[in-house]
Amino acid sequence: MKMLRLVCLGIGVLLASQAWADGCHLKDYGTLQVEMVDGQATTKVSINGADTRFILDTGALFNTMPRANALALGLKLQPAPFGYRLSGVGGTAEFEFAGVKEFGILNTTLHDIGFMVGGTDVGDGLLGANLLDLADVEIDLAHGKVTLFNADSCKKLALAYWSKDGNYNVAEIVPAYSHHDRRTFLKVTINGKQVRALLDSGAAATVLSRLTAERIGIDLAAPSVKVGTSSIGIGAKLVKTWIVPIDSFSVGTETIQHTQMMVIDGSMGDDKTDMLLGVDFLLAHHMFIANSQRKIYFTYNGGRVFALAKAPSDSDQPDAGTAADSNSVQRKSAPDYALRGAAYLSRGEPKAAIADLDEAIRMAPDQAAYYVDRARAHVANEQPDAALTDLDKSLSLDPKSVDALLLRAELRFAHKDLTGATVDVTAASTLAPAGSAQTRSIASLYVQLGRPAAALPFLDDWIRLHRDDALLGTALNERCWARSLSNQMLDDALNDCRKAIRRDGKKPLYLDSLGMVQLRLGHYPESIKAYEQAVAQKPRVAWSRYGLGLAKIRNGQTAAGNADLVAARALDPEIEARAAKYGLTAAGP
Q: Of the residues 165, 322, 326, 327, which has the maximum number of CB atoms within 10 A of its CB?
């Protein structure tokens, strides 16, 4: 089988050149406009003439994309060589290959570019280090820009060219263990202990592996440690997380005191990488990765450095040796304001985001995407009415925006406008590619709107295309629940629930769905067992209490069942009316 080629930037004309002393010339290949969307650094590219969005992922070895996206783009998939698998957070995953005849990026078109296809679907494809680290690269996510450079005769000069006062940080790049690996590794110090870190713009937050945390003396059972939610990576499994206090963190000449960081119960895809410096770290800094010198130069932008730190405050500021980037890019155009606004929102600063997006919209009131971004900021700022107004305007300009339709559907549902929400979900369902991440949202909304049968085709497509996805267990559970509510394909629903539990363990939501399908099947002792296990973990979920009560009543335990129904009504006064819509009543069959 012919292996697909790695990306090479065959750009014939350099777009700009900046000359310095000692004959140094920084020649740029072009700048990617980077928009932060749902905490991901994304940019627009074209695949065989079709515009699409990719995530910039310096932590990925190669360019990859989800299977659903590849099929939606009309790409032909080829099997990977036997035994080849993607590895990362969450373990390993199978993948295929796809060849792209024309790949448009940086105002040029590259030909016959290979992509890996597979792994957990994060919504968009990933542009990996085989593209991003072919040259020197400047990362300025706070202003929505990533620029690739060729540094000529600059070995002895500091390349933090934007810092006119010379107040910058520097760190040495640590060699990779393979000459095929172009990713950026650094030595960092946590609580006085040295660890090996990967600079990973694809990671939503900076994370430390459990083994490393324990090696450097972090006690995950300490009272100050909080159990986090499950996390995902490229691998096929969900991973457990903790939020831990960090006394000190240093990289190069920068030190951060008294912050918080995530620890994951797994590896980073190999046994040599201890932590990932995620997009939160990159958003807090203006950085130049000088691969030509094996160094990085960076300045601090202000605010918290790590996404899980308690809040932007003096306790999360670098020491006096680090200065903010006081020579940042001048913001003159609407896209500049919009990109910075999206970056503010990703850093948890919705008011600043709204201010910049107000200016972007003032300058370019016909850009539908700006209103969607401002709507997201309004939601984060707890202003749902303002968000709805922005979404109405955005959809008047671009009626086929699936993201806008789904966000408006969620807000309308929250406002109890079920008719309006249904209209939006129905419109989105005709536009979203089969098996895409958007179809998962469509399915969830249909269930919330009391139309579980309508959700099933979307869940079927997603599950069919994501057989090795970390979220497969949750999708199987959703389909089990939707089949149970609609009282159809109950044996298949039971199989879905059992598969989900085998994959991810006895999660309370999974046990709740299992209890429901066993109730529908008339397996009352099994239903009671599942519900009791769910209630033991989550005692304040009304559906579990109500289902448990029904199962007990139908099993002849009338007094105990009625007591559970009373408890369910106390948790949610509307639970009985909602359950009755599906024929789930104490007097029901």
A: 322
